[in-house]
Design brief:
The chain is 44% helix and 11% strand. It has an 11-stranded mixed sheet with strand order 14-13-12-11-6-5-3-4-2-1-15, sandwiched between helices. The chain has a two-stranded antiparallel sheet with strand order 7-8. It has a two-stranded antiparallel ribbon with strand order 9-10. Strand 9 and strand 10 form a beta hairpin.
Amino acid sequence: MIERNPRAEGNAQRRVVRRNARARGTHGTRGTPAIDPTPAIDPTPAVPAQDDSLMRDCDAATAIADIADRSLHAGVSRFTAGLSPIALADAYLDWAFHLGSLPGKRLQLVEKAVKKSLRLASYLSRHQAQEDLPPCIVPLPQDHRFDGPGWHQPPFDVIYQSFLLTQQWWHNAMTGVRGVTRQHENMVAFMTRQWLDVFSPSNAVATNPEVLARTQQELGLNLVRGARNFIEDWERAAGGRKPVGADAFEVGGNVAVTPGKVVWRNRLIELIQYEPATAQVRPEPVLIVPAWIMKYYILDLSPQNSLVRHLVGRGFTVFMISWRNPGPEDRDLAFDDYRTLGVGAALDAVGAIVPKRKVHGVGYCLGGTLLAIAAAAMARDGDERLATLSFFAAQVDFTEAGELTLFINESQLAFLEDTMWAQGYLDSRQMAGAFQLLRSNDLIWSRVIREYLMGERPPMTDLMTWNADATRMPYRMHAEYLRHLFLENDLAEGRHVAGGRPVAISDLRLPMFVVGTEADHVAPWRSVYKLHLLTEAEITFVLTSGGHNAGIVSEPGHQRRHYRIAMQAADGRYVDPDLWVVDATLKEGSWWPEWTAWLAARSGAPAAPPSIGAPKAGYPAICDAPGTYVRLR
């Protein structure tokens, strides 16, 4: 029973009385009522008290308005590939109004148009007398649309050069306009380039010399095959079926075949422990955290290019997280749930199966970002279960995250959140469309030319099959990821919250092995390199040839592969990325052996391998790898 204090209660009551008196304007002394100067009868007519219910918003009306607005955005997104038309209009209006206020810039554009026209006319006139005349404009190094010899013969040489000059003029018009925000400038330049690429002479039969020659040679049969290919692809896409040729690669059949067992399962992950391939193994296990926007088996493709098989073949005990493909029922999964139910649960299982041993943490793409957050939270809480960290094409600072940032601003994010709200997740096809736009020449138009105009079907590969086996992302988790990491850059700036408290990458002191890829359009290597600025840990940085996926799946023996490598000590000075490229050691071949040697140097002496699972600790062998979650579509 709580003992009452009458004196304290009396004082509290007196304070309330005095506060109410001051509010009424009565300031009499203690024990003496104040004299009220107002007359006994107020001549002003009384105003009836307003009904508070009329002042409050109607809950039903608010809910209906919210549902109507979100539903409208979700419906529009089906026709805009998830892009907000308002965000695009805002960017183009920003550009147009500022350009309209700059007569000098407009005059400069007129001058450029005249000069480009004269340059093309000069080339055309001189080409009549000189056959080996160099072109007046050459494509960018990554543009291979006009590499064929037919493009250097008239009239196709003039056609493609006029297109490139036009494209260059529009780039000049879209950039360098004073007053336009950087993001709006990048957005209008990017979208204008996409529209111009639609009208590239390489995309039409009559203006593509290679397609025209094939059509004449085969009397149009290539176009017949192309039409058949288009109809077949359309039917498969509409029915949600795999692309042509993907049936030749079966998960658990000829891809994802490294032997192992699923030793843990919750609503979000299956944890795979792979069987040892050597008599003795390193005592420290390896835990791989792949991105949740992809199936894990990109790191366990065919036996000859499986990173998992490479690791177990060199004496490492390997665990792999296999993310469950979420559905509408998972809409409320939070980003921090992926840390606790994913990385946290996996570390608990690994610790029970291989007790008293630290773990080599490995994260790929967004899995690397998640691993960095989990490791920072562990460092904050004094959890020392990690031995090293390896990050493959993973970002922790998103200020220069490539052209993906074009689609991330407040307007676009609100539109995308409404799209995900309506269905409970972000559909894999919507996400794939955004990635294809980033490399439209390679992923869209080159395919149109090859498969629909030339009538050719390239052979399906394991990597192409995996790329078509995409996953969904829960509404809440993906919204939090885009807003807090991409838009607000909370992780790099120390505001990201994990477990109710902020985490800081600067708390990480473990040795790190970080890999960036030269042609990465998802996680540009200079963005990956920014980890050097956020921690004082020892970092071994590797820059490898290839793109976001092919640069990581770079097995020994892969032709035309090279990489650069350099190590920055824990107390070393920062080196900017451009100088790093000059000073780093260039080596031919795959970076995989470099990484496994790095892991071995930070591991103990080989010993007998651990058991598969730990039934007594609650981690039995549930089923054979690759498990069940990887098969969910």
